[in-house]
Design goal:
Blueprint lengths: L2 H10 L10 E9 L6 H14 L4 E5 L7 H4 L7 E3 L2 E3 L1 E2 L5 E4 L15 H13 L6 E7 L6 H9 L4 E6 L3 H16 L4 E12 L6 E2 L7 H8 L3 E6 L4 H6 L12 H8 L3
Parallel strand pairs: 1-7, 1-8, 2-6, 2-7, 8-9, 9-11
Antiparallel strand pairs: 3-4, 5-6, 9-10
Helix pairs in contact: 4-5
Length: about 260
Amino acid sequence: MTDKANATSNIFEKAKLHPNSKVGRVIGVLSGKGGVGKSLVTSLLATHLAKEGYRVGILDSDVLGPSIPKMFKIEGKAKGGEGYILPAVTSLEIQIMSAALLLDKTEEPILWRGPLVSDLVRQFYTDVWWHEIDYLLIDMPPGTGDIALTMFQKIPVNALLMVTSPQQLVSHIVAKGVKMASMLRIPVLGIVENMAYVECGKCGEKIEVFGASTAQDLADRYHVPLLSRLPIRTDLASLIEQGKLETVHLPQMEPIVKAVLDLE
């Protein structure tokens, strides 16, 4: 085989887990752009799965804007030993690895180019000692660029969850993610519309503060289910600051949890 053929083969060769790791299903959580609450949806899905008795891990692949540790108020640096890195563990025993856990100060920027970022994410999969994981959730970087593409080529993702918000522009960008998944032959579990509405505490009326939803049209167009429309919870920011995200139960998350558990 020529050097060029070897290089091509390596592009599509899947990364292997650390010998001590055990991981079941791998679910990528993707959005077309930032600011739609992808990391929040990932964190809520992890907590709801953990409360159902499943062992869950979160691989924060948004290296340039890592936010998963902040969601769970995890501080300090990751630890490890010769040839392995240990994930941080939350009160519900959710295992977490993120670039934020490698920094001396969380506000320090990571000024890396794409290949270095992609290689670090691969190492999070291969060098982290994931302990008996049933579901590994990958909080993807926003968009469908080089980093996401390289990850899907390297890491064996079983299915994708697409996160959007009501604005038509965001839905248009999410459509690109659905098309990319189709091209890479990765199943799409469904679409989650975040920040869909605010529910009036007195009368229960659902107020669509960002305008009418386009998520169902998007789901119908690409023949994937609209799993859930998540409300804006004004108390979530405060709970996250207090490190209490794992106490939240959101009934609207239940269809998403079911879709994950039904994955063959």
